[in-house]
Amino acid sequence: MAERAWPSFEALFGRAPTVRADAPGRVNLIGEHTDYNGGFVFPIATPQRTTVVMAPRGDRCVRGWTRDVNDEDRWCTYEIGRETQTGRWGDYVAGVTAALRAAGQQCGGFDVRIESDLPLGGGLSSSAALEVALLRALVDAFSLDLDPLTIARIAQRAETEFVGAPVGIMDQMAASLADRDAALFIDTQRLAFERVPLPSALTLIVIHSGVSHRHAGGEYRTRRAECVEAARLLGVESLRALESDDLERLTLPEPLNRRVRHVVTENARVIEACEALKASDGERFGRLMNASHESMRDDFEISTPEIDALVDVAQRAAGVFGARLTGGGFGGSIVAVADVASANASAAQIAARYQRSIPRQATILIPPPTTAA
């Protein structure tokens, strides 16, 4: 079947664009549901990106078009200063301009075309990539004075306050600050970060389970509320205040005790994983990934049968040191760390075995499927 020809910016808006910007998705290597608890995370940028082309307008109207939704829903239109939530993809665009105004930054109207090769609901933060790419374009189009960390903070505000997804700041910091060759160790309480190069002998495998997720409601919101309640009962500002030694003396009802145990032990795993990566110790890093998945599955309860099956297949594959769910959970993708020499063959083997056991289509995202054996 011939690939569909998508309309250009010129065809959509009758003029040429003046600005182009993009931003990557992210794979979180370890450190899940720790960012909104003030903890540690360890993401890396994906090769897949969201691209924005734009031209300012002479009024306050915004006209947006995206390639990445159903035909009947590709357009969004609104006026700067009159952003309203619609429950559609345009909320991410409107959320960005509303958050910009709230931050004291002014922009005019614009036409924008958006496309992405990040899978929606794949656990690779397609929403943060859109927000950051759009902000980068607006910085250029309207000569705004925003550094990468401020861009991340405004993008998070757009998603939490306007879209209504109770996410931490990891996704937006990764989209704004991370690259493909180094993981980004982030202390989300201090908003401090360090780039840790990925050793040449190791590489990543990322596979979409075929089960999409959505963060704007449901169980993700419940988990965050449980963490807030646990912190209140323990009399701490956030679960970041707790150390592994504190777990033995804590008394909390189910399931809050297990939610706290996940966050505290996951923070410790992130710190150790950063040390392992610096030492090029794939086996140690893999053990930590495996332990992280067990904690997400049993203590935080954010996995699914399909994800568990895919992780199990990956953990037993040749050349793989460890594997885990990546992202907020309830579907999405898994990440594995593997020997670079066998990663393509390992990825193809994992996808094939998963599809034989689960009636879902596995999609290899990293390494790209065109290079898989």
Largest sheet strand order: 1-3-6-4-5
Query: Percentage of helical residues?
Result: 25-40%
What number of structural domains do the residues give? Answer: 2
- The CATH level-2 architecture of the largest domain is identified as 2-Layer Sandwich
Parts with pLDDT < 50 across at least 5 consecutive residues:
none
The main sheet comes to:
5 strands, mixed
Order of helices and strands: HEEEEEHEHHHEEEHHHHEEHE
What's the CATH topology name of the largest domain? Answer: Ribosomal Protein S5, domain 2
Mean pLDDT: 94
- Proportion of β residues? 15-25%
- SS-based structural class? alpha+beta
Number of helices: 10
Could you explain the architecture of this structure?
With 373 residues, the protein is α+β, with helices and mostly antiparallel strands. 38% of the residues lie in helices and 22% in strands. It is built from ten helices and twelve strands. It has helices spanning 9-13, 90-102, 126-142, 148-163, 170-177, 219-234, 256-278, 282-298, 305-315, 343-357; strands spanning 19-28, 40-41, 43-56, 61-66, 75-79, 110-116, 182-187, 192-197, 202-208, 320-326, 333-339, 363-366. The strands form three sheets. It has a five-stranded mixed β-sheet with strand order 1-3-6-4-5. Strands 10-11-9-12 form a four-stranded antiparallel β-sheet. Strands 2-7-8 form a three-stranded antiparallel β-sheet, sandwiched between helices. The longest helix is centred in the last third of the chain and has 23 residues, at 256-278.
